Structures are given as C-alpha cells and as structure tokens.
C-alpha cells in the first residue's frame, strides 16, 4: 500500500499514475459462456435489441431473470467458463468422446478392416484473446461447438463392388451447432455471439431458439491484500498496535550477516527499526508477533515481504472441484469476474454451501513443483479396452487393444516471475464425470455374409487447457462445466486452482555444541565447542591420535591449527586457544566473536564437502477429506510440513486415519534409486498370429503396490536437496473385465482385460534437510466408498542428509 500526503492536484496525478500502472500490469482475460433457450418471439426481440448496442449485458440479465421464475419456459442449456492470459489460446470442454466407425475398408480379397474416429459431443469453447492498444479493448477469435443430444446409432448397408454382396457398417448421426468467429469488444461487456434453432430433442419444439452469450472481463494480476493478523488480547501501550506475520525462524537467514545476533538486534542495527518502551518482538511457532508503532509495524511488514520474495521458493498448487446448483454458480461467477482478479471469495461461498449441504466436494489434487519445472499428479483408472478389429492376409482376425486413463489429472508447468510473487503457468486439467461407456458396434462381412461385432467405448470427460498468471496465495476459477454421463439435476462442477509461493527455509547445520553462550571476557574472547567430522584431522590425524594437536605445550602448537583452521580472516590473538578431542570429535575454541563466526562457517564448509548420503521416506495416508484439505491449506504456507505429518500419524494411532504404506530408501547424491513393494499381477497385453500361423497370447506383469523412484542431489549450501521424484501407488486391487468380438465366422472371441486403479506423481522439488513435505493429495479410485464418501489420500516425503561421522 502506498500512502501519499500532498496537494489535491498532485494527489490526482499520483492516482492517474497508479491507475496507469494497474492497466499495464499483467492481466488475464476471463470468459463466461451461456446458451439460453427461449420462445422464438422473445429471442428475436433480444436479438434486435442486442443489434443496437455493443453490450448485450442487459438482454442476458433479462433472460436470466425470466429463467429464475417458477414455471418459466426459458432455461440455460449450456454453461462454460475459462480464463487465460491474453495473447494465448485457451480451451475448455465438457464432452462425451464418442468413438464411431468411419469406414469398413476391404482389401483386394474383400477382407474387412474397421476404421474409427473420435467425435466430441457436448460443449467445447476455444478462445484466443489479445488486448488492443487501448487496454480495455479486446480482439478475440473464438469457436463454440454444442452437441446436446446423444448420438443416433444406426447401420448402413452397401453392395461391395468386387463381390456384389452386402457390407454393413455401424455408424452414428450427431446433431450440433457451431459458431466460429472473431469479435472486438470492450472489457467487462457481453456479446450475443449468435442465435440459432435448437438441435436434437429440442428441435421438435415449436418456434424455440437458442441465444449464445459470452461475457468477458480483463482481470489484472494484483497483490492480494494481506493485513497482518493480530492475536493480542491485552491492552496495548498508547500509540501502539499489534500484528502477527507469517515468518518462520529461518526466513531472515539469507539477509542477516551475523548469525550470532538476535533478530531484534539485527532489525535495530542493520534495518533502522526502533523498539520503544512497551514494544514486543517474539516468535510464536511459524509466526512473528509484534507490538510497536504503526510506522514500525509497516517497516517490519515490508521487511518480511522482502525476505519472502528474495528467499528460495517452492511452488505449490491445489486443485479443488465442487458440485453446486447451476443458478448459484452462474451468479457467483458473474460477480467474481467483475469484483477482482481473484476468486477466493467465490470459493469461500461454495465451501459454506458445502457446510449447509447445498454443495459437495467432487475432487482434490495437490502437487509441489520447482519454478521452471513440469509436474503431474493424477488419480486414475487405467482402462484397457478393445480398440480395433481386422482380418489379415491369412484370413485370421487380429484384435487391437488400447489403454485410456479415466479419473482426474493435473499437469502444471510454472515459473516464478522476477517480482517474487507472480506465477506464470500452463495448466492442463482433466476429470472424468462418469465411467467408460461401452456398446456393441455391428458390421456385416460381404464375403461370408455374416455379421460381426466389436465393442466401442465412449468416455465422459471435462477438460481445461490454459495459460495464465496468478498471484502468491491466489485462487482462480479455471473451469465451469455441466458434467456428462450423469444426471446431476441442474448442478454444475466448478474447479478452482490455488497457487502458493512458499519461501524455502533450510535449517543450519547443528555443529555448535555450546550449551550456553557467555558474554566475552575482559580480553574480548568467548569459548565455544563445535562438533567436527570423525576424519576432521585428515592425514594429519594419525600423528595426533593420542594427543591434542592444538595443545599449546606441544613442540609446534601452531602446526595443526595453522594447517586445518588456516583461512582468510581467521586469526588467533593473544589468549586464544583451540583444543581437539579425538574421542568425541569435538573442537573447543576460545577466540573473539568475529573469529568464532568465521571458524563456524569454515567448519560448516568442511562438513558440506564431506561424503554424504540422502535418506528419503515416503508415507501414504488416508483420511477424511475435511481433515486433509485443512492440513493441505496449512502446509501451503510453510516450508516444513512435519507438524501436518505428525498430526496425521497421531490420527492413525487413534483410528481416525489409515497408514497405507511407508517406504524408505537411502542413496548417494546424483544416483537414481528405486524401491517397490507389491504383487506382480499378470494380465493380457496382446493377441496375435505369428508368421508360422501359430497364435501368440502375450501377458505383461505389473507391480501392484507402491513404487518410488528418486534422484537426489545436494545443493551447494549443503543443507537442501534437489530431487526428481516419480511414485506410483495402487489405490485398489486390479479389476478384471471381459470384452468380446464376434468375428466374420460368427465365433465369439472373449478377452480378459485388466484395469488398474493408481495414483501417480512426477515432479522435481527442493527440500531442506530434516524436513517433511506434502508431496501430493488426491481422491482415490477403485472402491465403492471412494465414490460415496469424501475420502482423500496424501503422500508425504521426508528427507535427511546423512554425513559421514555424524
């Protein structure tokens, strides 16, 4: 916040300058699409009114008001929402992926091969937006496709020219409307993109029309207001206020030059922050509690913000999908689009609706990532199905199989921008609203004259693909869909994405063993004891196994001292000493505070250069959704999630959560290590006829259990680990289902196919030594209770650097 005191004329200039900065700030463009059905006379009147204005917002409001009245013959038949960075292409869809035969190819001997095509049926919206020279003007290219009705399945019979026999092919007719256009509009306005007659069942209605409206909003990426929260309940000194900042103990480590001084002393001497009588500066867990004057609180807040922006960061993303009444979601979406560039308030309204029983949770996904990296989190059913059929040159049927994942997946490719709080990201999200839907596709072979058939499988999927910019701690609505394949009774699904930028606070090496530091003595010297590696003396150690190489009574007391502790800036003034205890691997030094600090840093450097390995432990836990979402929200603000992990493990002990798997593996740095546990499950993978005419039935084994692959490397600071991680956890046993083909000889050929219910994570993170992180969060698949109840599973990772001699 900028506070300015000046003349009215100058204040107006400052306001104009601030507004120009806002308009030129990074921006996303949001779009809300609605297709409204109504009586032809009314829609024609609306069309005439919209043709006389550049903004059809009033006309849309009128229709929505009519639609809200009981018994109205006006209704919204399709909804969509998307937001993307201007200048990029974004798309969203809620469709049934309908696979249908496009042909029956016959070779010279009239042997048939079926060919297939996927046609998306439902609502699809694709937009490319660009801001004009005037930042309030939008140039947009868009494509809207709407296929509301189920496909009309039927068979085509045709005489095959070579044999003169009838060939039959199963196909389908699909009804839909499409608008492909380019428009120019002002930000915050509504366009009537088009009017058309309904298709499908609505086409039988007398004089009914559809009106396609799209509303846009330019949403500037601005810092969220984050007033410090106060926890003070006692009277405050006159002229003072209380504030609490999120700032863990290690946040200021990169800014403070001397680690032996207190935070308060550093703020006073290095930052010019005063602490008058009655002021308070104290830590309360992850928070910094302050009582001071408003000006000093503002300075401390700016310092906290600076420390957060300059510290190394981890990017954290949480995706939330809820189901709520369509009227509620439409209204909240329209209000949120124009209120601000963030949708936190909208999500809070929906969470309150969940508490009232007016909405419900559908899905949750969470993933951590590095800036510049690509991360994937998914919880899916890997569904194997028959995808092709042909008769080869030996008149033998060949069957093709394919695997398609159904469930929920999130892929993000994100980068933290230079300001330290804005995240640019590409997002791809997919969630299946219903299970695979198989049917029989029937054909007729012209040679034998017999029918043959194979299964055709459709998939119900909701998609969002976009590129946008988000603020640290911000929440965006990324999609609004009517789910296909199920009757939701006037409900829509809304999906939100939360982006968090978490300062990474690495713990310092615990090498100082001094129980209680004493003030410098009369000579200005202090005594401290340090832990050193077992091989601290190196080659020189052999000569000093029975004696202290730093003993001042030795023939050459300075030999080892000068050789081992020789370092620019380190000196041993009169009265200083260094004593080595080889039995306990400790070094006790008496020196000035400045030299002790330099020696400590030298010993830390020696530790960091020594041999080390990394121990990684993975925990898979299952708990009620409300508990895990609460812990995920807390974890999104911290570098170390040990407290959240400990709370879940405590819940396991009292039966409120379940521990599903624990894996530990230790490896050297820069070495890929894997561990897995489970059952090798064999399933059919291929069926083919070999060149010698023999049938080959091939199976493939798959580990069903828990598999972890890590490749860690220790960073230059010696206290953080960069780690590539891939893990796979099966949330339910394999599911065997049978599909069959009727071949051209009328034989029923059956195939046992195996589906797997699995969660997967692929990412790269940097994790401080000795800490824990919530790696992923997801809704499991494969069991009835997972569909009926709000149950989530979480994977935590802990990382420890093991140094030789510790």
Would you kindly provide a brief summary of this structure?
By secondary structure, this protein is α+β, with helices and mostly antiparallel strands.
How would you characterize the overall build of this protein?
- The chain is of the alpha+beta class and 806 residues long.
- 18% of the residues lie in helices and 50% in strands.
- The strands form six sheets. Strands 8-5-4-3-19-18-17-16-30-29-28-27 form a twelve-stranded antiparallel sheet, with no helix packed on it. Strands 20-21-14-15-31-32-25-26 form an eight-stranded antiparallel sheet.
Low-confidence stretches: 539-549, 551-562
Strand content of the residues, in percent?
over 45%
Rg over CA atoms, rounded to whole Å, is: 33 Å
Number of strands: 32
Helix content: 10-25%
First CA to last CA: what distance?
Answer: 48 Å
- Quick check: average pLDDT? 85
Basic shape: flat
Task: Map the helices and strands.
Blueprint: H1 8-23, E1 27-39, H2 40-50, H3 57-67, E2 75-85, E3 89-106, E4 112-131, E5 137-146, E6 152-159, E7 166-173, E8 177-186, E9 190-196, E10 208-220, E11 241-246, H4 263-271, E12 280-284, E13 287-292, H5 294-310, E14 313-325, H6 326-339, H7 344-356, E15 360-369, E16 374-391, E17 397-416, E18 422-444, E19 451-471, E20 474-481, E21 491-503, E22 526-531, H8 558-564, E23 577-581, E24 586-591, H9 593-609, E25 612-624, H10 625-635, H11 642-653, E26 658-668, E27 673-689, E28 695-714, E29 720-742, E30 748-768, E31 771-778, H12 784-788, E32 791-803
Antiparallel strand pairs: 1-2, 1-10, 3-4, 3-19, 4-5, 5-8, 6-7, 9-10, 11-13, 12-13, 14-15, 14-21, 15-31, 16-17, 16-30, 17-18, 18-19, 20-21, 22-24, 23-24, 25-26, 25-32, 27-28, 28-29, 29-30, 31-32
